[in-house]
Design a protein that fits this description.
The chain contains five helices and five strands; from the N terminus they run ααββββαβαα. The protein is α+β, with helices and mostly antiparallel strands. β1 and β2 form a beta hairpin. The longest helix is centred in the last third of the chain and has 28 residues.
Length: 160
Amino acid sequence: MNKKYSLAVRGAGLLAGGIILGALAGCMSDDTYARRGDRGRHLGQTQATVVYMDDYDYYPGYEVYYSRNRREYVYRDGSNWVRRSEPRGITVDVLLAAPSVRVDFRDSPERHHSTVVKSYPRDWKKAEPKREDQRKNDKDSRKDDDRKDKKDRKDDDRKN
């Protein structure tokens, strides 16, 4: 009977030891995760979110914005702001041929439109770059002005 009892005790001891060992193996401390480089257990999926930093070109003659990142046009339709792949009431070719300016905000045009309209009214046009002959004329006129100033100073010195 001692042998049966001792086998039963050993079996129960092994079983209890296995259960305890299994329970301990499933429970790792936060230090264990830190040593392994884990931040903890992942309980669900994460979802990636894409954030656009908007950048807009503004067409003052039509009060239309174009987002280069989103490839969409933003404009007022009555009292509502709309976003579409093509502007309404004008072809893209005509719009692209019109004067435009790159605006420096990174969020919705509707938040800045009142300021933009003041800076760039409907009749706004880009400043034409100076041609080479205009630059030469400007340089020559500055030389003439310098000569006149020198002459005036000499005349003033003679009078005094």
